[in-house]
Design goal:
Largest sheet: 9 strands, mixed
Number of strands: 11
Order of helices and strands: HEEHHHEEEEHEHEHHEHEE
Shape: globular
Distance between the termini: 47 Å
Structural class: alpha/beta
Number of domains: 2
Oligomer: single chain
CATH class of the largest domain: Alpha Beta
């Protein structure tokens, strides 16, 4: 029953990556009707109870946003992403959701949250960056079908090259084991940051580190601006990680990796984690000739947000 509800709401769920709360655009009555059409007879009240068990919550409106309209193509892009996901799933091809989680300072610093303990863990009274032993940059790759996460922790900078290295790391250590015959990959990403749609360095890194090296075509779909909470990785992986290390100081990279690897949920989430100590340069500019050599095919639907990069033979 719970699995049926999760499948039904897969394209209509958003969530808080820090608190773990989730919400959906569908009402309990609508979910009840759709379950009945699938042969599962449950009332709206039962659906409400099951949604609560899955971590969904009723939310009230908060006057916090500026009076600014959303992107006019928002719904069209959501529908296109949902259609592509269904197409890839039907053919048994991998679909992953990617993003960079909040950077963490490594050291004896306060981590928000509370834990059951006899005494409180003493931490530094100020979060001075100069007192840290380093910075942890977690870039996550989440497979929503298998409910598996792979997080690469960088120690340098969140750059397009680092993002592509994290996806490549997932492909080598996890993706090829479960999608051995796949020659196509769908990536769901946000609309900014190191994997933004206008970032030529991101596309070039995908070309060289994935497409050319492993002979696969990579399709990337970006969520519209201001809709990152609908990216599955936010509420299905990052929120679970935040809850797992809540109230526990990340005093070393080893501690951070340990909490990532021990992140689990009742719905079966498992997480792998790796540390990447390589240094990444910021502000790298690609020559026009390199950009021109990217084998990029923009899609007919919203080409600025949807494109496929093919291997160069």
């Amino acid at each position: 029953m719970i699995q049926a509800i999760e499948r039904l709401l897969v394209d209509d769920t958003a969530g808080d990556p820090m608190g773990g709360l989730k919400w959906t655009r569908k009402t309990t009555e609508k979910v009840s009707v759709e379950l009945r059409s699938a042969g599962i007879d449950v009332s709206a009240n039962t659906v409400a109870r099951l949604l609560s068990e899955l971590g969904y919550a009723l939310r009230v409106n908060h006057k916090k946003r500026a009076a600014r309209a959303g992107h006019p193509e928002r719904n069209r892009q959501f529908e296109y992403i949902a259609a592509l996901r269904r197409s890839f799933h039907r053919r048994g091809l991998p679909v992953v959701s990617v993003d960079t989680k909040k950077k963490e300072i490594i050291g004896c610093f306060k981590n928000p949250g509370a834990v059951w303990a006899k005494v409180a863990t003493p931490v530094n009274d100020h979060d001075f960056r100069s007192d840290a032993s380093g910075m942890g940059i977690p870039y996550g790759v989440y497979d929503p079908v298998r409910n598996r996460g792979h997080v690469c922790v960088g120690t340098s900078h969140d750059t397009p090259e680092f993002a592509a290295d994290a996806v490549r790391h997932w492909w080598v250590h996890d993706g090829t084991k479960h999608y051995q015959r796949a020659r196509q990959l769908l990536i769901l990403a946000d609309n900014g940051g190191s994997n933004g749609p206008r970032n030529h360095a991101w596309k070039h890194a995908i070309q060289t580190k994935l497409c050319d090296r492993y002979g696969i075509s990579v399709t990337v779909c970006h969520y519209p601006p201001g809709t990152s909470k609908w990216n599955p990785i936010e509420h299905r992986l990052f929120s679970a990680i935040s809850k797992n290390w809540a109230g526990k100081p990340l005093d070393s990279y080893e501690t951070m990796i340990k909490y990532l690897r021990t992140t689990k949920t009742k719905t079966g989430l498992k997480v792998q984690a790796s540390l990447i100590r390589r240094g990444y340069r910021t502000g790298v500019k690609l020559a026009a000739t390199e950009v021109a050599r990217i084998r990029l095919r923009p899609h007919d639907t919203l080409p600025a947000w949807n494109y496929t990069i093919a291997p160069r033979q």
